[in-house]
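Why does residue order matter? Because the sequence determines the fold. Keep that principle in mind as you read this record.
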Amino acid sequence: MKNKEFTVADQSRHHGVSVQMSTNGDISAEIKRLFGRIVLGLSFARKPLLKWRWRMLAMLIR
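Structure:
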């Protein structure tokens, strides 16, 4: 278990994502919920909101 967590943290650091994010289960669950909401939103709203939603996603990732 610990070894796997370290490899995940290593990979996330390699991709420029904070290690805290990868190890914290609550945050990853929140991200999954957010992605689900975005996919749901994209299926309803087409082009007008598309750019705005991706801009919000980019802000949240940073």
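Residues 2-61 form one domain.
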